[in-house]
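note to self — DONT lose this again. spent like an hour looking for the file last time. sequence + predicted structure for the chain T wanted, 185 res
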Amino acid sequence: MDKIATLKALAILQLAYPTDMSRERLDMYVNMLMDLPPNLLASAVTYCINHCRFLPSVAELRDTAARATALANGDTDEDSAATAWGRVQKDIASVGYTGRPDFSDDPILADVVDHLGWKQICLTPVDDTAILRAQFRKAYEAGCRKRRDVKDFRQSGIHISPRFTQAVTGKTEALPEGGDVHDFS
């Protein structure tokens, strides 16, 4: 998105809130949000005007845009976890504990199943299925949060370790030029 389209999407904030945005603040908002599609940003601005008492921060606008996109795509963590659990249940019936299902299309699901153990999932007593499902959902949603964090940090220009990226996305990446990985610990 170009700066003019971003500026147009953000212009209504000047009218909606009593606090005037300085030129510097408006420039910062434009620079930080110009990667969002214009219609999505305009929708996020409208939502925030209707729900925020004070001028929304860049983070609030980004969060609103991300939630709107997830809802539009039917891609909330809760729905994803329920769908993933359904796949596990289906594969328990079709593959059984002696086989190994293929979850390569969903690296988060594959990681959760590896963590909990395929055989242990299959052999869980019926009385304990609700407990297992809750543990699975919690682990799957944590994986979804990690995937969002990777995306958000990348958008902010922060390099993510290839090992961590592969665990969350299932894709391998080359190290940045020079092989340097930033370690913030």
